[in-house]
């Protein structure tokens, strides 16, 4: 073999080594990405479970309305709006807002273990839950 052939063979071996290392590095990065995606999904699930076990109070949209108690995962409440409350926090909210109403969409009374609130007459005598 001549010097040129040895030089080419050596360069070829170097490039093969680089390709093998790049494959190994790619495998490591793909594993890291999968682990991070799994962690993000686990965190999303934990947050969803925490919302399901919590409640939140929103202010009334109408000037003459009352604050409304919702389950933490109620679709009527934007995520990040208001603090999530535990059962003790709900008790404190009921004491702070005696006119507190319960959302008719998410029906928080079931998750609180209480009965559905009684209906009350509206301004035109129409019964509202």
TrEMBL record:
InterPro entries: DUF6233
Pfam families: DUF6233
Protein's name in the database: Uncharacterized protein
Coiled coil region boundaries: 26-53
Keyword entries, A-Z: Coiled coil
């Amino acid at each position: 073999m001549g010097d040129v052939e040895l030089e080419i063979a050596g360069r070829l071996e170097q490039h093969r080594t680089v390709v093998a290392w790049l494959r190994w590095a790619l495998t490591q990065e793909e594993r890291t990405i999968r682990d991070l995606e799994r962690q993000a999904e686990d965190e999303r699930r934990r947050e969803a479970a925490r919302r399901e076990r919590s409640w939140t109070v929103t202010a009334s949209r109408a000037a003459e309305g009352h604050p409304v108690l919702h389950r933490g995962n109620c679709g009527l409440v934007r995520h990040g709006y208001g603090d999530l409350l535990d059962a003790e926090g709900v008790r404190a909210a009921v004491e702070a807002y005696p006119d507190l109403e319960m959302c008719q969409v998410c029906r928080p009374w079931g998750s609180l273990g209480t009965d559905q609130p009684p209906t009350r007459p509206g301004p035109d005598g129409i019964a509202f839950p």
